[in-house]
Specification:
Length: about 170
């Protein structure tokens, strides 16, 4: 891999790229589009719109950056505006879809390993690193009611009913 010597955070993220093909200029120029105090955590290459460019996941936002000879494009997605992330991978490449502020952005031709890792990290960012809550356990009243119904239907004996009722009440 090519050493870029841009900035320590950018260099570290660039070293993890399987290929920087089509994004070398963007890696060199990335500090120009970053905010003060913003650090790069992960990079990936991809195609968005008409440009082959660089996806940069920072501590504050997701940035797509294309810097061509005649034009450049910067589109950013602050984490607070991203509602969901979708990853669909093929044999070698895939598509990262970002849903933000009522719109949808598809970044295509993202190398499979980079895209999946980026999607997983993005999901953690937008959920605040908190995994989805497990389903709530039924409340005590519901459990006792179900137990009563089982006894009335003859599905459990009086002895099983007493044992299970005791366990439910002991769980309080």
């Amino acid at each position: 891999m090519v050493a870029f010597n841009v900035r320590p955070d950018i260099d570290a993220a660039a070293e993890k790229l399987s290929s920087s093909f089509g994004a070398k200029r963007e890696i060199q120029k990335l500090p120009e589009v970053l905010w003060e105090g913003e650090t790069v955590e992960m990079l990936a290459t991809g195609v968005y719109g008409k440009g082959n460019g660089l996806l940069a996941m920072t501590n504050q936002r997701l940035v797509f950056y294309f810097h061509g000879v005649m034009s450049q494009k910067v589109e950013d997605f602050p984490y607070s505006r991203i509602s969901s992330v979708q990853w669909s991978g093929g044999m070698l490449m895939g598509t990262l879809t970002v849903f933000a502020s009522g719109s949808r952005a598809e970044i295509k031709q993202v190398p499979k390993d980079q895209g999946k890792a980026l999607a997983d990290q993005l999901r953690q960012k937008i959920t605040g690193g908190v995994p989805a809550a497990p389903p709530a356990a039924p409340d005590v009243a519901s459990r006792l009611q179900t137990l009563d119904q089982l006894r009335a239907a003859g599905a459990i004996t009086d002895e099983e009913y007493r044992d299970r009722r005791t366990k439910i009440l002991d769980s309080l």
